[in-house]
Specification:
CATH class of the largest domain: Alpha Beta
Distance between the termini: 58 Å
CATH superfamily of the largest domain: Response regulator
CATH topology of the largest domain: Rossmann fold
Mean pLDDT: 87
Structural class: alpha/beta
Strand order of the largest sheet: 2-1-3-4-5
Number of strands: 12
Low-confidence stretches: none
Helix content: 40-55%
Order of helices and strands: EHEHEHEHEHEEEEHEHHEE
Number of helices: 8
Number of domains: 2
Shape: elongated
Strand content: 15-25%
Largest sheet: 5 strands, parallel
Length: 235
């Protein structure tokens, strides 16, 4: 069975990591293992990851720190914590930093699988229903159909890269997203040439959005970009 879903499993216990990978692979997932928090972030940037399973107590960067950094660039990716820390305060902290679920050790593999499936199903259902259709000023953007429509008129067809970039801006509306994270998320590369390519696509998006002067992709010099909407000057 091939679910077509890539899981990032960050676990510093090699035996536990091996068992998790073998079990989840058998259940149809593709599993990427990371032994510490920094390698987890590196894998997230270099691979297409659909969901993350994070141990809390890891070297270099702990699971809470990793979750915060993931949420900074992707508000919607499912995150589950695995932890021996079972105090209510620890669980609350996990949810505060963006967890979708928190599972305490020891746990059964069947329970883990059920929780993974439920979390991913919720996330994918949300993406289908609301996170792929956006209102941007006078525009309607449909990520599934890769169209941008002004005032109900003729839809403007977007390329895949344009659609991915605009969706990233929309789900982080009015929030700064840094250049490097954007490049890694969409281009899987932060080289000079990838950066120049991204600039070209941003120029194209600005051209499409020009019809509504209240909508802007703002360049924060040396840092990144954000999609904003200012109040209309008309009363």
């Amino acid at each position: 069975m091939n679910l077509g879903i890539n899981l990032l499993v960050a676990e510093d216990d090699n035996n536990m990591a091996t068992i998790l990978k073998a079990y989840l692979t058998q259940k149809g997932y593709t599993v990427f293992l990371a032994p510490d928090g920094q390698q987890a972030l590196d894998l997230y940037q270099s691979q297409h990851i659909d969901a993350c399973i994070l141990d809390v107590m890891m070297p270099v960067k702990d699971g809470f720190t990793v979750a915060k950094e993931l949420r900074h660039v992707d508000k919607n990716i499912p995150i589950l914590f695995l932890s021996a820390k079972s105090l209510e305060a620890d669980k609350l902290k996990g949810f505060e930093v963006g967890a979708d679920d928190y599972i305490t050790k020891p746990f059964s593999m069947e329970e883990l699988l059920a929780r993974i499936n439920a979390t991913i199903r919720r996330s994918f259902d949300d993406n289908k229903s609301e996170n792929n259709q956006f209102t941007i000023g006078r525009f309607k953007f449909d990520y599934n159909y890769q169209t941008l429509t002004l005032d109900g008129g003729e839809p403007q067809r977007l390329t895949s890269k344009e659609s991915e970039l605009l969706r990233l801006f929309c789900i982080n509306f009015n929030q700064l997203i840094d250049r490097s994270s954007t490049l890694q998320k969409i281009w899987k590369d932060d080289s000079y040439f990838a950066a120049r390519s991204m600039d070209v696509y941003i120029t194209k998006l600005r051209k499409y959005l020009r019809a509504d002067p209240t909508v802007q992709i703002v360049n924060v010099h040396g840092v990144g970009f954000k999609l904003t909407q200012k109040a209309s000057d008309s009363l």
